[in-house]
Amino acid sequence: MSNGQLLHLLTARAESKNPLRVGLIGAGKFGTMFLAQARRVAGLHVLGVADLSLNRAREALTRAEWPPEQFAATHFDHALKSGTTHLTDDGDALIRSDGLDVLVEATGNPLAGIHHALQAIEHGRHLVMVNVEADVLAGPLLAQRAASAGLVYTLAYGDQPALICELVEWAQINGFDIVCAGKGTKYRPAYHTSTPDTVWEHYGFDAETAAKGGLNPRMFNSFLDGTKSAIEMAAVSNATGLNPQPEGLKFPPCGIDQLPDICRPHSDGGQLSHKGTVEVVSSLQPDGTPIDRDLRWGVYVTIEAPGDYIRRCFSEYGLPTDSTGRYTAIYRPYHLVGMELTTSVLRAGLRGEASGAPVVFNADVVATAKRDLSLGEVLDGEGGYRVYGKLMPANQARISNTLPIGLAHNLKLKHKIAAGQPIHLSDVEFDEDNAILRLRREMVQRFATTKNSRL
Questions:
Q1: Could you please report the per-residue DSSP string of 273-301?
Q2: Mean pLDDT, to the nearest integer, of 201-215?
Q3: What pairing do the DSSP bridges indicate for beta strands 44-50 and 20-25?
Q4: Would the pLDDT of 171 be above 90?
Q5: How close are the terminal C-alpha atoms of the chain, in Å?
Q6: Is the fold of 3-159+338-351 the same as that of 363-448?
Q7: Class of domain 3-159+338-351
Q8: What is the pLDDT of residue 453?
Q9: 146-183 burial, b for 16+ CB within 10 Å, e for fewer?
Q10: Considering only CA atoms, which of 345, 346, 164, 343 is closest in space to residue 238?
C-alpha cells in the first residue's frame, strides 16, 4: 500500500470523525518534535501526553506552539470527547485510557520503556518504540509478544534505525545483497570519555543555549561518546539480520563520495571485516578535521552489483562506485527525527505495519568503562560519567557474559574495572528478582539459539 493510500485512510478517519488516537510518554526533544507536527495532521488525535514532570510536558507543548486550550483537558474522558489532550505524570494511566490506539514510548529510559511496552501489549495498544535503548535490551521478545497479541511493535520512522531498515528493505526487494548499512555521526576516539559536564563544548554551544532548546546533556552525551551509535546499529542488526563486525564499530572517516570504497570488505580494499554488516562513518578525521561532503545527519546502504550487466548499469546511470565499479551506495543525507514520527504511528494504527522491528538477536551493546572504575562505584548508565556502550555480536556478548548498557543503571561494582574494558555481569551486584533482568534473560535464552536470518 502506497503512502497515498495511507493518506486516503487517514482522510477517511478525519471525515468520519473517528481519528486515530495516539498517546505519547516522554516529552523530551523527540516527543516535542512529534507534537509540533502531529497537531497539524487531520485524522490524528493526541489523546494524552505523559511525563514524570507535568511542567516539562506543558513546556514541550508550548515550545511546539500548541495553543493552551488544546491541552487543557482535565481527564482522558474529557480529551476523548472534546478532541483535546490530557497531560498526566502517570504513563500507565495513559496506556489504560479508553480509545487509545497507538502508544509512542519516547522516555529514553530502557527500564521504563520495557515496562510501558508490556503494559501496551497487555491493553491492546500498538507500540512505536522510539526508545531504542529498550529495544536493544529486550526488543526481539517484546516484538514477538506484540505479534502474538495481534499488535504492531515498530521502530520510529524519522529516527535513523527505521530509515536504515527502509533502505535495506528497498535493496533486498530489488534483488541486491546488502554489503553494509549504517549512518553518519560526529566522532573522534577521545569522545568515548566525554561526560555530561564536557558534552556541550564538543557541540560548540553553552549550557544556557542547550537549556533553551530543551536539550538533555546525558542524551546528547550518549550521541557523542558512541553509545547511541552502538545502540542504533544493534537495533538495525536485530531488525534486518545484518551481523556486526567482531570488533564492533570502527567509525571510519568517510564522506558521501567515499562510501562505496570505505564500506566494502577488506578483501576488496575497504574497511569491513565481512559483507552483510553495519557501520557508522565519521564526519571528522581523528584530528578533528572536517570531512568533505560528510553524512553526519544521514543514512546509507552499500550494495554490490551481482554481475557485469548490473555493474554496467551502475555506470550508465551515473551511480558513484568504487574503483571496481561493483560497489555503490544509496543514501539519504538527512533525517527529520520526531518530525517524521507520524509515519510510524499511521502505518501501525491504520495499516498494521511496522517501520522496522527486531526479528533476531544478532547484536548487543556492552557497558564499557570510560575511565578506571573503583570497587564500590555505582554505574550511572547511558550518557553518564562512568560507562559508554560498545557494539558487539550477540553470541560473543552472551558467551562473555557482559553487562548490557541498558542494565548499567544504579549497579554497584564488585571489582575494579580498567578504562576501556567491558563490564561483566559478575562485576556488579544484581537483584536476582528484578523483573527486567528476568525478561532480558528470557529474551537471550529464547533468541540465542535462533539462526541468524535476513528479512
A1: SSSSEEEEEESB-TTSPBPTTB-TT-EEE
A2: 81
A3: parallel
A4: yes
A5: 19
A6: no
A7: alpha beta
A8: 39
A9: beeeebbbbbbbbbbbbbbbbbbbebbeeebebbbbbb
A10: 164
Taking only Cα atoms into account, the Rg of the chain, rounded to an integer number of angstroms, comes to 22
CA angle 237, 361, 403 (to 5 degrees): 100
The CB density around residue 438, as the number of other CB atoms within 10 Å, is 11
For 253: left if phi > 0, alpha if psi spans -120 to 50, otherwise beta; the answer is beta
Helices 342-351 & 3-15 angle (0-180, nearest 10): 80
| Average pLDDT score over residue span 342-357 | 98
Nearest to 104 by CA among 44, 168, 167: 44
- 154: helix, coil or strand? strand
Q: What is the DSSP letter of 152?
A: -
Distance CA 48, CA 221 (A): 29
pLDDT digits (tens, 9 = 90+) for 304-337: 999 999 999 999 999 999 999 999 999 999 999 9
Count, residues in the chain: 455
Q: How far apart are CA 227 and CA 39, in angstroms?
A: 32
Neighbour tally for 47: CB within 10 Å: 26
User: Could you tell me where the beta strands, DSSP code E, fall in 406-451?
Assistant: 409-412
Which residues lie across from 369 on neighbouring strands?
A: 387
Tell me the mean pLDDT in the region 168-195. Answer: 97
Between the alpha carbon of residue 177 and those of residues 168, 242, 299, 328, 451, the distances in Å are: 9, 11, 17, 12, 19
pTM of the predicted model as reported, rounded to 2 decimal places: 0.96
Domain ranges in the chain are 3-159+338-351, 162-187+226-334, 363-448
Nearest C-alpha neighbor of 331 from the set 258, 238, 222, 227:
258
Contacting residues for 258 by C-beta, under 8 A, at least 6 apart: none
Pick the CATH number of 363-448 from 3.90.1210.10, 3.40.50.2300, 3.40.50.150, 3.30.2270.10: 3.90.1210.10
